[in-house]
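new request in #modeling-help
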Amino acid sequence: MSRVAIVGIGHSKFGRRNDVNVAELAFESIKQAVEDAGVDRKDIGNVVVGSAGGWYEESLPAVVVNEYAGLSSVGTMRVEAACASGSAAVKTAYSSILSGECDVAMAVGVEKMTEVDTLTSVELIGRAGSYTWEFENYGMTFPAYYALYAVAHMNRFGTTEEDMARVAVKAHHYGSMNPLAQFQKEITIEKAMGSQVVSWPLKLYDACPLTDGSAAVILASEEAAKKLTDTPIWIRGVGYSSDSANLSRRGDYVGLAASVEAGRRAYAMAKVSPEMIDVADCHDCFTIAELMAYEDLGFCKKGEGAKLVREGQTEVGGRIPVNLDGGLKAKGHPIGATGVSMAVEITKQLRGEAGARQAPIRHGVGLVHNVGGTGHYAYVTILSRG
Amino acid sequence: MPDQPVLHSRRSLTLRFDIPISKTQEFWAALKEGRFVTTKCARCGKVTFPPQADCPNCMASEFTWTELGREATLVTFTYVQITPASFVDSDPYIIAIGEFPGGTKVLAWLEGTKLEEAKPGMKLRVEARSSKEGSPYYVFVAA
């Protein structure tokens, strides 16, 4: 099979970005990615925009973003896979090159979540499940969905609130080294444990923030990539899966079946095992989600996620460093931008451009794990130097 | 980032949906009579909750209504302290997933139980309720 590489990356500052509208925000990443790739915009055959939308004024973000960036006649679409919309955009751009439709494509992730008031954002994310049976009468929230998993995981495996706080402390530690992160302050376990309960047992410091942000990657066919760059980062494996809309139809609440299946498919396609992953970005919308990701992706056995973080195995110097960009927790989680942001981070890591938070690269392989909703969607993308 | 000048849009948008329930109205009618029922496929026998007229297992569209019973076991739960915009008038609530004999699971509020009393494995009973506007819904209570 022919190969596809990431040849250009761009990433905005994440945070409350009320200095820019959605098109201006996306432009920050598009401009960087185009310059990083050294590509002429007229050679981009497809722009796929990942954005969940609903919390900002534009209904058609793809054309608004493209018009602003001088890409008006390009083939385009907006894709949605909830919080995995960014990975869905990367996957769609990747497929358009593999199919021979174009030689160069761009995936742009963008979200503006702070133009509406906070409780309206909470409501819009809370409706991300099965509206009639979970929201209409019961007011599910996004933290509540993951809290159902946290309680089951604590009950089954003895995972504690302190274990979850350790994930937040790690995220803020690396976030403090990432100038593009929303939060750049270290926190302590005590501070995390003492923060306000949002949906018990999850507290404010177990939860990612509401974030405005964008990210972009430019993908190229093998032939085009070799002309454009000496440091292509190859997309070696893509796996994606899904699960029921209604949480009540899930088999259990201690892991995400969609993550397991997406991982299995991506590992098989890339012909790598979890032991070969040098560095990973995992979907930590809540601290419990990162612990489940370790288990679902085979970084440890089922039920041993908490042990991995207690031992520091997911820090630099450990067995498999995870979320060295600060993760969703500290870097921020602009829904549609997150998956693209993760691809940007792992590309930086594999290029050796991550500076103070660089992971040691042994096998030259990195992994992106991006979940949409509460395991409603899952995408795993495996990247490599060679 | 310091406050920036913004255009505060004058065009507000209120969304209220008329959600069709014609295929499953028996569920809501039975609930008003205090019965807790769901759909069972007439071809393959699969019991599905939430109820749906078309079987996700074999795609048959013929079904019967079957009683799920009243007793369930608590699988997992959470206590929602920060509630969404449209629930600001609600007190914080416990959301639970209960499993009925036969394995069907249901998500609903757990009423009348304090957070520190809730435990996976505890026995629950499902009860019908009616909203202020007269819409039926269901909750769990400790059995």
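bot summary: The radius of gyration of chain B is 19 Å.
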